[in-house]
Amino acid sequence: MELKVLDMVFPRRCPVCDDAVSEVGSLICAGCADDFTFIDEPYCIKCGRPVADDSLCYCPECDRNGSSYDYVRGRAVYEYDEVLKDSIYRFKYGGRREYAEYYAKVMADRLGKLIKSWEPEALIPVPVHKSRMRKRGYNQASLLADALGKLLDIPVEDILERTEKTKLQKGLTADERQNNLKKALKIRSNDVKLKKVVLVDDIYTTGSTINAAASCLRNAGVSYVYYAAVGAAVID
Length: 236
Ligand SMILES: [Zn+2]
Ligand SMILES: [Zn+2]
Fold this sequence. Notes:
Elements: H1 2-9, H2 60-65, E1 74-79, H3 82-93, H4 99-117, E2 122-125, H5 130-136, H6 140-152, E3 160-162, H7 174-184, E4 185-187, E5 196-204, H8 208-219, E6 224-232
Parallel strand pairs: 1-6, 2-5, 5-6
Antiparallel strand pairs: 3-4
Bound molecules: zinc ion (2 copies).
One zinc ion binds next to helix 2.
């Protein structure tokens, strides 16, 4: 009830059109939800990106490099198209932290069963650097992990930290990018007892962030790392 009163005073913004959501208690406008594009089958069994046809198990990227990845597998709910790109941009840089609730809800609806089947002991948000965090006031992946953890009843462990600001990643080779990121990530605790975890992030693009985070966790003794994200970039 309390939330609904708040909704009336500070109307919640729609993750698609960014207008105030008119229906109290709703997380998105009735007509807007369909503007996001779900990733349906066929998708890559490693990274969850859409693949061109049913005969393919892997996307081209995972076909080449998937066996070297430190995570087991992962899924995203939506294609990272223009609609989602704009939405995530506002979520990250425009202070629209309320979008996390809608994103987490669709993640729980579409991926909840699968995530549960991985039997994770914790959800782990992909960290952002402290200075970015100060500027923004929040880590978008933490907001997602918290909301998703509540819906699926899985604890959230914020054990990763980004110690260095990664340099502009554009123009670097995949290996260079990977090394930069690996150096930038650290485990906060020196006694990690977790064996199965799910990394949570807003988007999966090249996969280098998830991989670096997974590698960090594996080095700390975690046996199985999965990932879940709101969106994944499509490779043509
Ligand atoms: Zn809308
Ligand atoms: Zn893939």
